[in-house]
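User: Structure please.
Assistant: Input sequence and predicted structure:
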Amino acid sequence: MDGADVVVEAHVDHSGEHVITNIINSGSQIPKDVRQKIFQRFVKGITTRGSESGGTGLGLSIAKWAATLHGGSIHVVDDARGVNFEIVLPMHPHLDHDDMQQLESAE
């Protein structure tokens, strides 16, 4: 490990419609011009000597897929503490008729 700390924060937005989770890694920042690319499959963040994770570059693309599947989003926001991944998810996802029936039948 490189000695970086990770902080997880979560809160409901002012409208009460979304849960916002921030995962802050005190390691090195991600340059603004690369931030959208890191959510593509097989793209790894900037690696410096000794920082290679051995990963495949799929983790963030899966996180983006999952957030989008649930009607939300994930992106990097500016934060003086380090890399801040912000995940925004709806408090009450819109369910279609079949989803509602499955929930009702499970009760």
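The longest strand covers residues 18-25.
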